[in-house]
Amino acid sequence: MKNKTITRRTLLKKSALAAIGSSLFLNSPLRVFASGKQAALTKVVLIRDKDVIKEGAADKEILNRMIDEAVIELTGVGSASEAWKKILKPDDILGIKTNEWSNLRTPPELEEILRSKALEVGIKPENLSVDDRGIRTDSVFQNSTALINVRPMRTHAWSGVGSLMKNYIMFLDQPSSIHPDSCADLATLYMLPETKGKTRLNILVMLTPLFHGIGPHHFNKQYTWEYNGLLAGFDPVAVDSVGLRIIQAKRLAYFGEDMPLNPPAKHIMLADTRHHLGTADPEKINLVKLGWNEDLLI
Predict the structure, then answer these.
(1) Which pTM does this prediction carry?
(2) pLDDT tens digits for range 163-213
(3) Angle CA(263)–CA(175)–CA(24) in degrees, nearest 5?
(4) Beta bridge partners of 148
(5) Which of 136, 169, 258, 285 has the most CB atoms within 10 Å of its CB?
(6) Is 159 exposed, middle or buried (0-12, 13-18, 19+ CB in 10 A)?
């Protein structure tokens, strides 16, 4: 009887864990696009082009091609126009959440590209907005049915890294309220009434990431490099997880020794293990690498 009891408990435990795992993406666009044998893995696309940065600015034509190739890979369809129609609908009210931090902002070229993709799908101009700090008074964001989250990757004094989950902080009346415990609960920003179930695409800009900083708002161009990439996916946790690994690898290469982030970017792991927002485990991420592969760091 003892062996039967242990076996039954083991089976119940496994069943419970399986149920938790299957519930992670019930409200995620990933559930729409995942299919077949890849459904068990979370797909993240890393695309790079060695010529995308020219004279300190992003080349719009190359950037346009990069994001189109990324969404084609994510959706598994044959053309960019089909891919965008899988992500956005003509009747959507779309907020493109950008980041305007002056030292390392979302490239204006990328903002323009995303706006044009939305218009090509058929979204009305009055139902489209690109904004950052004004989203709480922006009527499009307040009535949105869809969001695109796009921002550059950088180290951050309060959360270890400023990445996709951190980018929704401006939806809060008091952004500082999420700062305790190294911003451990940033995943909850994806569960606000203004955001829950609305994010159609996450784009982590890895063109010139900031891999080291000292103190709040610190920026030194010495600690940026031309990685010339974009990370895209339907799961913000998986995209942030990949971005974090690249930052950590760059720090090791630059400093010649392991230099842990201070504070650690623990919110990425906790987004998976505590909040069940998405997947942080590299073994559960299908990382597809496109384009230029020199010094990938991952």
Answers:
(1) 0.86
(2) 999 999 999 999 889 888 888 999 999 999 999 999 999 999 999 999 999
(3) 75
(4) 96, 201
(5) 285
(6) buried
